[in-house]
């Protein structure tokens, strides 16, 4: 009886000091992350290299979980951005998809996908421009950069709307 209550006391002491240690460690990590994010979000000169670096960071945070770090997606589930005709044509198409999302069947590089992508319009225009500039010039893609002004113009023109279908995008941007 005595032994077991001693053990209990010991266990409580150990676990509360572990808890304290965990809290201390947890407190430090977000502060470090915030400093890194701040640095990435305020590029010194706002040049092309900074936009690409920002785009790569944001792509990793937002898009890579589905489209993968190498842009190849996941066969039959998440379509590739590498070599995608939707990414590499008229920049208004990927801008529209990111702002408002996409649903229903879409053919990408000859494979049909029938899922849905949520809208990412809560991301600031400058970050969407950076992400799409990165996507359009990575994974073997070599399409033009996307400016913040282009994203803002599409956002204003499209206003509030539901997710696009591939058919609607083809009708709206026939050249792409
Ligand atoms: C949670 C998973 C998920 C995330 C995160 C995601 N997507 Fe998608 N994305 C999809 C799916 C699924 C489709 C296909 C939707 C369909 O079948 O209609 C798609 C389609 C697309 C397409 C058109 C098809 C193609 O492959 O070219 C583009 C462009 C695109 N996403 C870009 C992005 C970008 C940029 C981000 C980050 C801002 C992003 N996606 C984040 C799941 C995701």
Task: Give a description of the structure.
The structure is a single chain. The protein has 176 residues and is mostly helical. It folds into two domains: 1-42; 47-172, Cytochrome c-like domain (Cytochrome Bc1 Complex, Chain D, domain 2), CATH 1.10.760. It is 58% helix and 6% strand. The chain contains eight helices and four strands; from the N terminus they run αααααββββααα. The chain has helices at 2-41, 48-62, 64-67, 85-88, 92-100, 125-136, 148-158, 166-172, and strands at residues 102-103, 106-108, 111-113, 116-117. The chain has a two-stranded antiparallel ribbon. The protein has a two-stranded antiparallel ribbon with strand order 2-3. It binds heme C. Heme C binds at residues 62-63, 65-67, 78-81, 84, 86-87, 94, 97-98, 102-104, 106, 108, 113-117, 120, 131, 135.
Which SSEs are present, and which pair or pack?
Layout: H1 2-41, H2 48-62, H3 64-67, H4 85-88, H5 92-100, E1 102-103, E2 106-108, E3 111-113, E4 116-117, H6 125-136, H7 148-158, H8 166-172
Antiparallel strand pairs: 1-4, 2-3
Helix pairs in contact: 2-6, 5-7, 6-7
CA(first)-CA(last) distance: 79 Å
Secondary-structure element series = HHHHHEEEEHHH
Our count of domains comes out at 2
Helix content: 55-70%
Helix-and-strand structural type: mainly alpha
Q: Would you count the extended β strands for me? A: 4
Largest sheet: 2 strands, antiparallel
The number of helices is 8
Overall average pLDDT? 83
Structural Rg = 23 Å
Do you know the CATH topology of the largest domain?
Cytochrome Bc1 Complex, Chain D, domain 2
Supply the CATH class of the largest domain. Mainly Alpha
């Amino acid at each position: 009886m005595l032994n077991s209550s001693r053990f209990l006391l010991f266990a409580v002491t150990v676990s509360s000091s572990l808890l304290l240690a965990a809290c201390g460690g947890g407190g430090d990590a977000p502060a470090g992350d915030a400093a890194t994010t701040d640095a990435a979000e305020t590029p010194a000169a706002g040049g092309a290299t900074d936009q690409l670096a920002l785009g790569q960071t944001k792509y990793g945070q937002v898009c890579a979980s589905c489209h993968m770090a190498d842009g190849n997606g996941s066969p039959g589930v998440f379509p590739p951005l590498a070599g995608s005709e939707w990414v590499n044509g008229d920049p208004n198409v990927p801008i529209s998809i990111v702002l408002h999302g996409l649903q229903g069947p879409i053919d990408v590089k000859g494979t049909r996908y029938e899922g849905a992508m949520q809208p990412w319009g809560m991301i600031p225009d400058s970050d969407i421009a950076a992400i799409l500039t990165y996507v359009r010039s990575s994974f073997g893609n070599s399409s033009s950069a996307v400016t913040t002004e282009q994203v803002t113009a599409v956002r204003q023109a499209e206003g509030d709307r539901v997710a696009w279908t591939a058919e609607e995008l083809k009708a709206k941007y026939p050249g792409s």
